C-alpha cells in the first residue's frame, strides 16, 4: 500500500525504497516458509490435503500473480482444456510459484518466461521455461537434491539455500507426480512436473 501511494504521489525515491523493502520481505517470507516446510517434511508432518481442482486454472492464477509481482520479465501463460487433478492445491501452487521465482531469479531482466499446462497420456503437465543462464549437464541430475546449489560465477551472488527444488520435488512425488528439468547453459531451462488426471 505504501509503495503504491508513493508511486501515485510521484515520489520515485520513496517508491524505489519501498519496492526494495517489499522484495526483501518476500524473500524472507519464502525462506521462512521453506525451512518450515522442510521441517514438516522431515518429521512426517506435511500431509497432502487432496482435492479435485483444475490445474490449468491454478497455472493461470500463478501466472497472473507473477505478472503483477515481476515487472522485469515478459511472462506468457498458455493452458489447454480442463485439467482436473486430485492433489493438494495449495502445495502445488507453492511448486509453481517456486519454479516461476527461480525462472525470474536466474534469467536477465527483459527476457521471456513461459508457464503452461498441457494434457497428454492421462497426465496434466506444467512447464516453466526461461531464457536464463541454464544448468550444466553435470549439475542437472542433482538439482532436486536437498541443499544442493549450482556453484558458478553467475550464481555466486544469487541468494538461496538449496531447498526450494527439493521441496518442490517432494510435494510433486507426494501427489503421485513426476518432476524433471531440461537445460542448456547460456540458453535457459525448462522445468516440468506432471500429475495424473482424474478419470
User: Could you say which overall geometry the principal axes of the C-alpha atoms support?
Assistant: globular
Give the biggest beta sheet. Answer: 5 strands, mixed
Assign a percent range to the helix content: 40-55%
CATH architecture descriptor of the largest domain: 2-Layer Sandwich
CATH superfamily of the largest domain: Histidine kinase-like ATPase, C-terminal domain
The total of helices stands at 5
Mean pLDDT: 84
Integer count of domains:
2
3D architecture notes:
The strands form two sheets. The protein has a five-stranded mixed β-sheet, with helices on one face. Strands 1-3 form a two-stranded antiparallel sheet. It has helices at residues 2-8, 12-42, 55-69, 89-105, 164-174, and strands spanning 50-54, 74-79, 84-88, 112-120, 123-129, 178-184, 188-196. The chain has two domains: 1-46; 49-196, Histidine kinase-like ATPase, C-terminal domain (Heat Shock Protein 90, 2-Layer Sandwich). The radius of gyration is 17 Å and the shape is globular. The protein has 199 residues and is an alpha+beta fold.
Map the helices and strands:
Elements (H helix, E strand, L loop, with lengths): L1 H7 L3 H31 L7 E5 H15 L4 E6 L4 E5 H17 L6 E9 L2 E7 L34 H11 L3 E7 L3 E9 L3
Parallel strand pairs: 2-4
Antiparallel strand pairs: 1-3, 4-5, 5-7, 6-7
Helix pairs in contact: 1-2, 3-4, 4-5
Amino acid at each position: 500500500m505504501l509503495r503504491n501511494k508513493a508511486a501515485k504521489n510521484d515520489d520515485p525515491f520513496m517508491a524505489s525504497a519501498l519496492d526494495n523493502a517489499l522484495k526483501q520481505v518476500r524473500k524472507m517470507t519464502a525462506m521462512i516458509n521453506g525451512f518450515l516446510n522442510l521441517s514438516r517434511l522431515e518429521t512426517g508432518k506435511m500431509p497432502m490435503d487432496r482435492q479435485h481442482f483444475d490445474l490449468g486454472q491454478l497455472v493461470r492464477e500463478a501466472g497472473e500473480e507473477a505478472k503483477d509481482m515481476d515487472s522485469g520479465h515478459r511472462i506468457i501463460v498458455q493452458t489447454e482444456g480442463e485439467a482436473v487433478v486430485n492433489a493438494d492445491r495449495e502445495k502445488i501452487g507453492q511448486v509453481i510459484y517456486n519454479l516461476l521465482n527461480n525462472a525470474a531469479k536466474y534469467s536477465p531482466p527483459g527476457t521471456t518466461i513461459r508457464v503452461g499446462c498441457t494434457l497428454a497420456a492421462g497426465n496434466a503437465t506444467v512447464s516453466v521455461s526461461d531464457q536464463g543462464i541454464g544448468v550444466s549437464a553435470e549439475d542437472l541430475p542433482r538439482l532436486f537434491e536437498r541443499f544442493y546449489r549450482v556453484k558458478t560465477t553467475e550464481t555466486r551472488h544469487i541468494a538461496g539455500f538449496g531447498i526450494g527444488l527439493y521441496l518442490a520435488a517432494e510435494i510433486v512425488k507426494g501427489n503421485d507426480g513426476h518432476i524433471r528439468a531440461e537445460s542448456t547453459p547460456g540458453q535457459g531451462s525448462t522445468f516440468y512436473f506432471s500429475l495424473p488426471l482424474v478419470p
